[in-house]
Design a protein that fits this description.
This protein has one domain. It is elongated and about 80 Å long. It has a two-stranded antiparallel ribbon. It is built from 3 helices and 4 strands, in the order H-E-H-E-E-E-H. It is α+β, with helices and mostly antiparallel strands and 146 residues long.
Length: 146
């Protein structure tokens, strides 16, 4: 049934955005972590999304416009480390300071993470709204037969 596909698409969006919020929370929690298990400062992580039916070029959607092309939602392709440079902070008394007194700090910017958290939260809310709308349409369809 068609409405089950839209429920699955919304569910995949909810799952992906929840994972994104979890990763953002981890970034914020480790904003001052100068030493991880491997001895290096924490590196910011980002979630990479991908369409659930892979990378279908837009031209294919145009050429198949007469067919019913229902998207498969979204899936998490990977969780990647952000390779932007680490911050150097002058703090000679810190245990992780180098010989010049500089400490390598994580490449996490709290303001960026908060903006990302707001956008992830809004995307999650949009998926909930789409799911609720689909449920409402299905209920109205069932009422037609009465």
């Amino acid at each position: 049934m068609g409405f089950l596909n839209s429920i699955n698409v919304s569910a995949s969006g909810l799952t992906a955005e929840k994972l994104r919020m979890d990763v953002i929370s981890k970034n914020i929690a480790n904003a001052n972590t100068t030493r991880t298990a491997n001895g290096t400062p924490y590196r910011r992580q980002v979630v990479v999304f991908e369409g659930a039916n892979g990378n279908v070029p837009f031209s294919q959607y145009l050429s198949d416009a007469s067919k019913s092309m229902i998207g498969g939602g979204v899936k998490v392709k990977s969780i990647a480390e952000d390779q932007t440079p680490l911050k150097l902070v002058y703090e000679p008394g810190h245990p992780d300071a180098d010989e010049n007194g500089y400490v390598k700090m994580p490449n996490v910017d709290i303001m960026t993470e908060m903006v990302n958290m707001i956008t992830a939260s809004r995307a999650y809310e949009a998926n909930v709204t789409a799911l609720n709308t689909t449920k409402s349409i299905a209920m109205k369809a069932l009422e037609i037969g009465r």
